[in-house]
Amino acid sequence: MSTHSTQRKITVPHIIEMKKSSKKIAALTAYDFLMAEMLDEAGLDIILVGDSAGMVIAGHQTTLPITMDEMLYHTKIVSRGVKRALLVADMPFLSYQTSIEEGIKNAGRFLKEANAEAVKIEGGKAVIDLVSSLVNYGIPVMGHLGLTPQSINKFGTYKLQGEDSETALLLKKDALLLEEAGVFSIVLEKLPTSLAKEISESLQIPTIGIGAGPFCDGQILVSHDMLGIFDKFRPKFVRRYAEIGNLMRDAFTKYVQDVKENEFPNKDESF
Known about the structure:
41% of the residues lie in helices and 14% in strands.
């Protein structure tokens, strides 16, 4: 039995409280039931159903093609494995950019149909009105600033953001605007350590870093990256906690070999 199963259910107020009491927030992504269950039992505070599913599960080159229906499906199956962590769903590209009404409807679907407890939205000033509306309607929102993968076509590459003083100032302003609009936390992706530290210290709500140094209030990685399963590219900020991809390849190769050489099944594995 998991040591965490008896612990309290993590809620949005708990996440905010963790910053106040200087407790670090641990977050990872999940896209299916089994992985979600393992993450939950390991004691994760936040499990994010990331639109990164578009890349690590669906095989797209970017996060842009994944649809609302696909994200709802992933969130729904992940929710069955989550008992303790706060479950956050990523709003996919074009599910909230077209209008506030559309954004409210789609965010609501994540809570109503897929059992998410909050949604994550990329962007700063442009999404402020939507964020305020969602929070007013009882839909908790996690912000996301810095390298926002849905804007990859604008950025051109997955490069470090906020290196020049002008962009850094905009990001600091956006973070304060998001806090004012009511987000309960903000993901800071691929920012210089000093800028992420400055933003974190300027806010009452927690920041969750991914490639943004050690001074954020929490950290998140894509599970398939830190497990060594996804290796199309290896960002500098990803610590590989395992090389499960290699283990899987070896196991599959050995299975093929055993079947071909009539080594499997053996007598013990037969009736």
